[in-house]
Amino acid sequence: MLYVGLSGGIGSGKSTVSARLIELGAVVIDADLIARDVVAPDTPGLAAVVERFGPGLLSSDGALDRPALGAVVFADRSARRDLEAIIHPLVRDETARRRAAAPREAIVVHDVPLLVEGDLAADHHLTVIVDTAEHIRAARLGRDRGMTEQEAAARIGAQATDEQRYAVADVLLENNGTHDELLERVETLWRERLSPYNDNLLAGRGAQPGTRAVDGPAAARAVARVRRQLDFAGLGDHIGQLGTTGSDTIEVRLAPAPAVGDSLRRALLAAGFVGAPGATDFTACDPAAPLRLSLRDTAG
User: Fold this and answer.
1) Secondary structure (DSSP) of 43-82
2) Between 147 and which of 151, 158, 170, 188 could a Cys-Cys bridge form, CB atoms 3.0 to 4.6 Å apart?
């Protein structure tokens, strides 16, 4: 199962990309929808929000008055952190449940606006950023959501910068043109990268070596994924050294080196690398970044 993180600034066209990916066969997990579900009436999430912010944020039918809550937390960083401390664990648990429920052969797309802000990029096999010029996003917010120039600028300014998104992006989907041009880029991405990557994961097959070296930023993102997945597997304390030893090779030195068992193999698979049972050399499944990974004992 390929797990893709999808993000972009407000007004970037991310929803259009998500909708087309569903049409192409992806299972989309929408973080915004989950965030609404976990504070629906009669949920523990809503009860926790009311306890922190008071019953004045409830509408007459007992539902959360989201614009009123937004006005409170947007103006108060401490209040926003408190809300995130309530909502984020609930969203994370529900996201994990929906991902686990998806078919094994699915391409699962995690549509999450705050991917950068939440440091979530390394949780995914691949990160796709919808990249749209700020002035175009601001114009769309005025046209589609009725925001003033000041309101649009404030909303854009409250999110990650373009440079921060570029730093985690494996794929930049440019959306400064027409709707049809964006859809064509999504279809190309699906055909040339997402589907082959998923096929390789399912088959336990590494990607074929490329004709060009993998660039430094792509290798650095892969290293971050490996570290994150080893941490998730409880193996982070074994990492003695982790980094690139050449343009196409990641070396993981473990101290002490655990046996290359199922937990280690699953962690590396979650980072996009496959290897034969008992092997210490692994290959990336991403056809656009065919890296190699070697496990070594720090004593070696």
Assistant:
1) SHHHHHHHHHH-GGGB-TTS-B-HHHHHHHHHS-HHHHHH
2) 151
* Residues 6+ positions from 133 with CB-CB distance below 8 Å: 176
Spatial contact of 250 and 243, defined as CB atoms under 8 Å apart:
yes
Question: Known binder of ligand: residue 294?
Answer: no
**Residue 211 annotated as binding site:** no
Q: What is the pTM of this model?
A: 0.89
Mean pLDDT of 8-23: 94
Q: Is 15 annotated as a binding residue?
A: yes
Q: How far apart are CA 121 and CA 83, in angstroms?
A: 22
Give me the residue spans of the domains in the chain. Answer: 1-26+106-203, 32-101, 216-297
The CATH architecture that domain 1-26+106-203 belongs to is 3-Layer(aba) Sandwich (3.40)
Is 247 marked within a binding site?
no
Strands (DSSP E) found in the chain = 2-8, 27-30, 107-111, 126-131, 171-174, 239-246, 249-254, 273-274, 281-284, 292-297
Q: Is 13 known to sit in a ligand binding site?
A: yes
pLDDT at 298 over 90: no
The predicted-structure confidence for 48-78, as pLDDT tens digits, reads as follows: 999 999 998 899 898 999 888 888 887 788 9
Are 136 and 13 contacting, i.e. CB atoms less than 8 angstroms apart?
Answer: no
Q: Which amino acid makes up residue 28? A: V
Question: Is residue 182 a contact partner of residue 18, using CB atoms and an 8 Å limit?
Answer: no
204 in a known ligand binding site: no
Phi-psi region of 267 (alpha: psi -120 to 50; beta: other; left: phi over 0): alpha
In CATH terms, 216-297 corresponds, of 3.40.30, 3.30.460, 3.40.50, 1.10.8, to 3.30.460
